Every structure is written in C-alpha cells, then in structure tokens.
Structure prediction request, 1005 residues.
Amino acid sequence: MVQAIHTSVRGRGRYKLNELYQQEGFKDYLELSLTQIPEIISVRANTLTSNVLIFFNPNISHTRIQNIIDLIVREYKQKKYQRQLPKVSPLGRNSGKTINQADISETCGAFVEEDWHLLETDAVIETLQTSPAYGLSEELALAKLEQYGQNLLPESPSRSQLRVFMEQFQSLPVALLTGAAVLSTVTGGWIDALVIMGVVGINAVIGYFTESQSEKIIQSLKKRDRPFTCVLRNGQIREINTADVVLGDILILRPGSYVAADARLVEAENLTVDESALTGESIPVNKITKPLYSKETCLADRVNMVYKGTLVTGGQGLAVVTGTGQYTELGQIQQLVGSANATDTPLAKQLDRVGSQLVMLSGGICGVVFLIGLLRGYPWLVMLTTSISLAVAAVPEGLPTVATTTLALGIRDMRKHQVLVRSLNAVEALGSVQKICLDKTGTITENRMSVVEIQTDAQRIEVRDGEFVNGDRIINPYSCQQLVQMLHVSVLCNESEVVQQEGKYIVNGSATENALIDIAIAAGVDVIGLRQSYPLQEINQRSENRNLMSTLHGTKEGETLVAVKGRPMEVLQRCNRRMKGGEIVPLTADDKLAIELENERMAGKALRVLAVAYTHIEGGKDRKNPEENLIWLGLIAMKDPIRAGVKDLIAQFHQAGIDTVMITGDQTPTAFAIAKELELANHNQLQILDSTDMLSINAEAKSAIFDRVNVFARISPANKLQIVQTLQSAGRVVAMTGDGINDAPALKAAQVGVAMGHSGTDAAREVADIIIADDNLETMMIAVSRGRTIYNNIRKSVHFLLATNMSEIMVMLAATTLGLGQPLNAIQLLWLNLVTDIFPGLALALEPTEPDVLKKPPRNPEEAIIQKSDFGDILFESGSISLSSLAAYGYGISKYGMGSQASTIAFMSLTVGQLLHALSCRSQTYTIFDRGKLPQNKYLNAALFGSIGLQLLSLGVPGLRMLLSLSPINLTDGLVISSSAFLPLVVNETRKKFTDSGRSYGGID
Prediction:
C-alpha cells in the first residue's frame, strides 16, 4: 500500500512504501520505472526509511503519482509467481508416496540449484518431505545421512612438521648448492660435499624451527567446535551432533545458537541473525518468512534464509535445512579457497631469478675453464676438478642462509608486536605491497554498535569517547531532562542482560541494545537500579510488519510506564505529544516534518537510527493498545565504530605509497560514509563500485577500472576473490585483510593474507600468511617497515656476495688462462666462501632500519634484486679485488715460485680483501670516510673481526693449515697481503666520490 506523507507542495511529494524496507532490488526497479515516465523529473528512494521523494510536473496531481507507484508495486510483486514452483520435484506433491533411496536422490539432486528464497514456505516443506510440527522421522534422517554424508566441511589441512621441513629445500639457491655437493662427491671431493651440505642443513634447521613455531601458535588460536544442534525429530526437540543434520531437518533457532546448515525460515518471531562473518554486513539482520521477488537477490538480502556458521542474536524461529556440508554457502566458500592459488612473493621470485642467472654463469665458467685447460694441455681430470671448484665458487653459499636467517629474525621481531607470521617470505612480501584491500567489518570497524549522535528537543548532541558534546561544549547529561528520559527509556525498553562484577558492568545481548546500555552507563545511569525501580510487566516484540518494540513497567505511583523504541517513522506516527524544555506540548505537523528531515539526515550518513518515546497508562485502563498517544523524546543514531587509530593508519599507508581499498558487504551509502571519514581516497575523488555493476564490466576493462576503485560495496566472497585476482593481473602486489568466513578465498589468493587473531574466524586464520593476535591493525605498519628493510638489506647482501664470488672466478679464470697454475685449490675456495659469505653477508642483512623507509613508495615487484645498472658496479668492484689479489699472487710467484707459498699469499689476500669489501657494500652513496652518515652496525663489526680471526687461525692451527695446504708467511708477506686487501677498499670508496649515480640499495643512504 502506498501512503502519501507530504503532498502540500505542488510538484513535490514524499510517499511511504512498506515493501521498500531493506529491498535494494525493489528500490532500483522502482527508481528506474518512475524515471521512464515523462512527467516525473527525479526520484530518490530510501530503503532505510521506506520513503520515496519524487519531483514531477506541477500540473500532475499527487493522486495520479500515487496511482502510478501503486501500479509499479503490483507489477513487481507479480513477478514472483513466474519464478515459483516450476523447478520443484513432482515428489514434493505426493505425500502418500512411499519414500525410498531413489526418491531421496531425486529430491536432493535438485535441491542444490533451487532458489529457496523465492518459494513459499509450504512449497519448501513439501519439496523436502518434512513438517514444521513433526520434523523428519529417524528412519528418513538416517537414510539421507547415509546417502549424502555428514554435515561437515573439508578442513584445510595444516602443514605437517615434515612438510615445513621439506619446504626449506624448495628454493633454487639451495638446489644449486646441492648440485655442487653432488659434483664434488662424484669427483672425489667428499669433504667439499660435506661442508656444502652442512650449510644447506643449517639453513633448513633455521627455517624449520622458525616456521614450525609460528604454525603451532596459529593452530592454538583455533576455536573449539560447537558439536551439537537442536532439531525437531519425530515431533520432539532433540539435541543431535551437528554433523548428523540432514536435508529437511527442522532447526530450532534461539538466541546464542549457531546455525548448523543453510535453511529456509518457516517461522520467525522477532528473529535477528548476525551474518557479518559470512556477508560482511555489520548489523544483525531482521528475518522474515515471506518469499522474495528477485532471483538476483544477493546473499545479504535473502532475509528469509539462514546460513551455516552465522549466529542468532535475538528472537526465535524454525527453519528447514536446504543445504548441508559442501552444499552450503560456507561450503561454496571452502571450494573457492581450494581453487584460489597462493602467489609467490616478490623476494622468492627474485631469489629464484638470481639462482637461474647463477646456473647459467656456473655452466659458462665450467665450460670456458675446461676448454682453456684442455687447449693448454692440462690433464682432463685435473681440469674437470678445477671447473667444478669454480662452479662451487660461483654459487654463494651464504645466499640461502642470509635470506632465511634475516626473515626468521623478522618473524621473531613481529612476535614481540603480537604479529604471527606463518611463512618466512610473508614479512618481506608485506614490505613490497602496493595495494592493500581492507575488509570493513571487524577489521576497519569493531563489529559492534555504538551510539554516536542523539537528537532531542531541537538539540543535536554528539557522543565522543563517552562524552556528550553540543557544538563545542561538553554537557552534563543530567542537565538535560529530555536526554536523561531518553536514556532511561532506552534502558527499560531493552532485553540485554546486565550484571555487575567487581565494579564493572557486563552487558550481554544484541549489538543494538548493548549500545543503548553502554551509552546510558557512560552517562552515569544506574542501569540495574533503574530496572529494579521500574519492574518489567510485559514485552511487545517487533514483528514482520511492526518495526518497534515496547515494554510495560510498574511505577511507584501505581501507573504503568510504556517505553517504546523502534523505526522512527512508525514511532512518530503513534506520537501526538513531545517533550520541550521539560514540559509536554502537542506534536505539530511542522514538528513531524522537522523530525523526518532529521531522520533522513542521519540515515544519509549511513547511521542506524532509532526513535524513543514513552507514555503513562493509569492502572485501571485497558492495555490492549499501549503504543498510542505516545510522547516523543528523540532520535538515537548509532554505527559500527571505526577502530581507534585506523584513520591515522590509512594516512600512513598513503604516505608509504600504498593504495588502500575497502571491501564490504554493506550498502553503498554506508560504505561511502565510512570511506569519506577515513579519507580512503587520499584527498582525491572517492570511487565506489557496487557488486551489481561488476557484472557489466568487460574483462579487458576490468583491471583498469578495479585499479582506480577505492570502495567495493555489497561484495560476496566470490567477488572478493575476483577483486584480488584482478588487481594481481594488473601487476599489483596485493595484501588482503579480513576476519570472516567470507574473506578466506581472497586471503589465500593475495600475496599477503592478514587475519585477525582474537575476533577472526578459524577459516580466515587457516589460510592467512600473517595473523594479528591482538587485532591491532596498526602493527601492520611495523610489518611493512620490517619487510622493506629486510628486502633492502638482502639486496645489499646479494650485491656483496656476487661481487666477492665474482672476484674468485676472475682470479681463477685469469690464472688458468695465463698459465699461472691454480692460485686456490678446491678446499681453499670452499673455506673462503664460508668465511666471507655467511657471517658478513648476514651482518649486512641486519643493517638498521632507515628513518624514511615509510616515506618512499613500494618498489616495482618486477624490478630485479640486482638491476642492470648494478652489474657495472659489481664488475668494477670484483675486478679491483681480483687485480689486487693477482698482484699479490704474482709477488709470491716471483719470490717463491708457483707452489704452496704463493698460493697462501693469494688465498690470504683475496679472503681479507673480500671481508673488507663488506664495509663498502653498506651504501652506494656514502663512504667509510663520511663520518656520522652511516649508523653503527655492531653485527658487521663482530662479523669482520670474527672472520679475520678465523682466517688467522687457519695459519696458526696445524691441522687446519694442513687441510687448507697453507704455508707460513713472514712479515714482508704480511705487509703485501694487507696492502693488497686494503687497496680495493680505498679504490672502491674513492670511486663513490666521483660518481654521480647516487644509487642506493634502499638503505640509509
């Protein structure tokens, strides 16, 4: 029925349609139909207030407009008959037929594709061969259970200890080291092979213990299952194992119970369900039993259905099970999780790329040296051994250990900030994120309701951190009688349970009613004492066509107090008086218009608005209609509050060059209001895309459009996965945050999935790479900073390792080509790599975090860890070290001839020269002569002193000296070695002063 509300102005009218409430599909249909009529200028419908504001040709009467609306409503309703019952199995209409297994198969074979929300309840019950009064028989329930299996979802298998350990060997650098060890074994160098595999084993142990510890902590966060469900069987309410719920079972829905399976409601008495974990809708949904009209109704709008894994927050009801196990919406999400593939992180790709380059380099070196040796007449076996030694030298033994240990230390640091990291590469990947997708409910917001604004007696009061603010003035609630009266009525007309323990209130109830209790407590109301002073006598609950609630209370004067709250327009229609300045005065038409405009203003800010009113009934009067002649008190607006610090966090993301995207199941106005408050678009125009518009975007344009969007509204789990994958196809490194069941597929697909540890669901935590244990999203910036620093420092380490290993290759290649023998044998090469690669390389990876790391944009994920411009620097640096070492070797040959003495001088010169080169690799801009520019790195100092000490021990310890084939050196030899080691450092540092490239590793330069 269409009701005209305001028709006093020609050409402008406001009409009320009860059918419009929370029906987005009907809203779109109505607006589209009306705008196609030439006499109508503009239309604006509101699904929260159920009002339609129409501007039209003044020559057209309001009655004519009302008739047009009525006609459109009837046409829309008729569509439901075209969508009902054609797909119902004939079995559903033959109640006298004997049921066998084939019949069950026939029925269940169709149920998966049935649009249950479009059917009448009788049709659903008939189709599923059940009864709301009797339920299923035990025999039929058992037959269905045997036929279709238990109501279970396949769990995502957690990583076994063996799998965690084996994954440590699944990298190309480790494979190269293993290959080198095999070659060494084949050619008789079993000592080389043992040492190489020792390095591989140390790397695996570090990674294993770090990741397995994180895995255990994450698994400990899993919540215990809720194994029992109340159903109707053989006409009796029974508590059965949730896994034994079958198609056609009648679920008993009560406050606090979790829904065991997808089901169609057949009875609903003031039933509200929290579906935030599934749909992202932050406000509990009021449920109905009537069929819906549109086949395209999205999951969040199917108000006559309940879904597995959601929570009943109020009222009660009965529902017939329409889907179990993998055929539930939750089961479909689980299948999406299985189809979503995890993406390699940028660092993993880069290290594999470096490994591939080393394979080609090693192969080339082996071939060249082997051919040159054969041409010079050296024995082929000797040349084969030499070539393999060079191949071993080309593989930096320290590369896997540096990367693994650095990432492991990053994980340890994250744990101190309540951030649990499942895998080593996840920390680094977060540092390279370019776009972060933030789930709204439970991540950006607290997933609870909080009062933010109160309108009373033409006075607008904002609530900030528990304080009541009017303009710029903080007011005492008890200085405003009308405000106090509103708070009292809100406490009385409220079913939340309130107890006091150790001086603190504990409130248990629906999110909306809890918010009303919380604001009263903040104002200083003695909630428990107030309820004792006004004992509850009767409750009149909401119903499908009655969106208000009233409670009757006894008073000391012998009267009955009627406390009312509910949908503003419905409450307003029942009011004829209002409170003004502490006095009760008549409620005029102008007053009602002002209240309606204020309600629309609040609703336009995506706030949930409730009206509060009251009246007194004399003791002897009839109570049949207690909600008449009410006294209007005002409006209370609430919302799911944004988590503290999130707005500042968004600004920090923007400063770090990271684009922020909000993904929500809420409607567009709600999403817009939150995104605007957060400045999600970074002071640019906010771009919002509704899920209904995603279908019309072609595949070619999707990547470009999605990349510009700031907010995705009315989003389903499949939509979230599509958004993440589309952004990845556009070349973006994507992080996804979430806490709900509906977030799991997208969390798995993103390069970095971030789940909440306290409020999050098991499904989300199971697939996430990073879990924030205390739900404090601000710690993500610490992770981003750590990730960027880790990458920058690993890049320094890789630069150092390549430059030093290249110098070994140059020395060996030059000596072989010039016929100068072998300056280093295989054991010396391996010792040199172990001493110079691991400890200095690891120390470089522990460089302090740069102060402006979060003021730079994220790097290009396709950018090589060693860029083309770096190869010139690496060749020059390695060349200077090689020339200096060859000069020292030449001195040894000229004084002692080719042999152990000359080889010892070359070995000591090259080793110390490589160690000192670590000082030069701290920065490509600043030098060791720029005092105060570079902070101290105590780890590098310790690594250099320790490594040089080990090198001196190799000369002093007889057994080690014999293993390495070294000879004693004198003072002159020592001066030559020292000079040849320091000269490359001076040359390379001086070169920085005369180069204007100013390139940096991304470190403190």
